[in-house]
Design brief:
The protein is built from 17 helices and 16 strands. It is an alpha/beta fold. Helix 2 packs antiparallel against helix 3, helix 6 packs across helix 7 and helix 9 crosses helix 10.
Length: 464
């Protein structure tokens, strides 16, 4: 803080700018959890040393106004955060250029105690005098920008502070504060969305989707509160609540004479840090006297990227006990075939972003067709989510997709409506059976006749 104060005084005299960068080292928490705090500490020190070296050797040829080199200092703010101070700057372009050169390039891994650790940083930036004229304001605004950067998808993101972040930050702070009380206040509700068998139109399974009905803020979007719950650790309490509510509902339907049905719950990558996760899930099923086949768990590819070994063991335990395992949002991450080989999967869900494109041109159709052919060859059932039009349904039927989920057939609904639907869902059956199989591109020969054409289209696609 003293260095920032000195830099501000000098910048006022010289008519220059000062940039404060807060840098989040996203690997530190995982390192601490898996290899211990001593290894995380060594990684943090190694990262500081690397940044110092890179800042000392920053290419100033493209920034001729920095004749005396770049002025900087680096401070550690707790275990997971660094603060970088850049001084004697002339404009924002200098800051952007430095960040892109130092933080956003593909980096070599840092080796710590024989472990190779790949860095992934998020950076928030505030600039004097535009974003504040004192230390507290600059640090606070840099932290606000950092929170925005961490919300972006992909690796290595940075964000400059902007005025509207203040309002967003206040909303975020309130949501985070209220979220801690949401479970205790019984503000969470479950909706269920049917997954429809495309051969018969029957509903054999549902997906449980958590919603937050706040008494003042109204219905808070899962896209807003789930990432916050994952960052703060509240996701574990929410998931336990969801699992118990699902099991209670399944037992009620079973005892009331409804046809047996399974329900899928989503597991966050954060939860796989809990070594007892499988035992906790199986214990809850036993408590409610439910057969394991009535529960499905859905995981994303992020689980494989962040917790491969732990996820393998946990999912194997669940699968061996009879719980169904689905890979959710397939195609939005690395989509590595090795994940499918290592995990005990029963189902694969094609992400809605691909389903949206199937009727828009040959590229989208070819990608979905290829994913489906690969999945079936591996013995996996395929679920297409986000089906919203008749054309999409026809296309998926012609490809022999196993199940579909989406607004065209049924929206997420409260438990009472689900009960009514399970008693009488002839409208959905009629809608599915009205189209039937063999009406479109696949024809009577199914996927075999499509593969040569699909491969040709895929070979012609641009690299991406």
């Amino acid at each position: 803080m003293d260095r920032i104060e000195q830099a501000i005084r000098r910048a006022k005299r010289n008519g220059q700018q000062v940039a404060v960068l807060t840098v989040s080292l996203d690997a530190l928490e995982q390192l601490s959890d898996t290899l211990g705090s001593a290894v995380a500490e060594k990684f943090s020190r190694a990262m500081v040393a690397r940044l110092r070296d890179r800042l000392r050797t920053t290419d100033t040829i493209s920034m001729p106004e920095m004749e005396d080199g770049l002025g900087f200092s680096i401070s550690r703010l707790g275990m997971e955060e660094l603060v970088v101070l850049l001084t004697d700057l002339h404009n924002d372009d200098n800051v952007t250029d430095i960040i892109q050169r130092l933080f956003l390039k593909e980096e070599e891994p840092i080796e710590v105690d024989g472990n190779e650790v790949f860095t992934n940083t998020s950076v928030g930036v505030s600039v004097f005098p535009r974003d504040g004229d004192n230390v507290e304001a600059l640090l606070g605004h840099a932290n606000s920008a950092l929170r925005e950067a961490r919300q972006q998808s992909g690796r290595n993101n940075f964000q400059f502070y902007a005025e509207d972040m203040q309002q967003h930050s206040k909303r975020r702070l309130r949501v985070e504060t209220e979220l801690h009380r949401a479970v205790k206040r019984d503000e969470l509700v479950l909706h269920y969305q049917p997954k429809v068998d495309l051969m018969s139109g029957a509903i054999h399974s549902l997906e449980a989707l958590v919603r937050w009905q706040h008494p003042e803020m109204g219905m808070v979007s899962p896209g807003e509160f789930i990432p916050l719950a994952e960052q703060t650790g509240i996701i574990e309490d929410i998931s336990k609540w969801v699992l118990r509510r699902v099991c209670g509902q399944l037992r009620f339907w079973r005892e009331s004479g409804f046809p047996e049905i399974s329900v899928a719950v989503n597991l966050s990558p954060v939860e796989f840090r809990n070594q007892n996760l499988a035992a906790d899930i199986l214990g809850t099923l036993e408590e409610f006297a439910l057969p394991t086949r009535m529960l499905e768990v859905e995981v994303t590819e992020t689980v494989a990227m962040q917790h491969l070994d732990a996820a393998q063991a946990i999912l194997r335990t669940l699968a061996d006990a009879g719980v169904m395992i689905s890979m959710d949002d397939f195609g939005t991450g690395y989509s590595s075939l090795s994940y499918l080989k290592h995990f005990p999967l029963h189902k694969l869900k094609i992400d809605r972003s691909f389903i949206m494109d199937v009727t828009e041109g040959p590229d989208g159709a070819a990608i979905v067709s290829a994913i489906m052919a690969m999945s079936h060859s591996l013995g996996l059932r395929v679920i297409a989510e986000g089906v919203e039009t008749e054309e999409q349904l026809r296309f998926l039927q012609d490809l022999r997709c196993d199940e579909v989920q989406g607004y065209f057939l049924a929206r997420p609904m409260p438990r009472d409506q689900v009960g009514d639907l399970l008693k009488e869902h002839t409208s959905i059956q009629q809608l599915v059976q009205a189209h039937g199989y063999g009406m479109g591109v696949a024809g009577e020969d199914g996927m075999d006749s499509m593969l040569p054409g699909m491969i040709g289209v895929l070979n012609d696609l641009p690299d991406r």
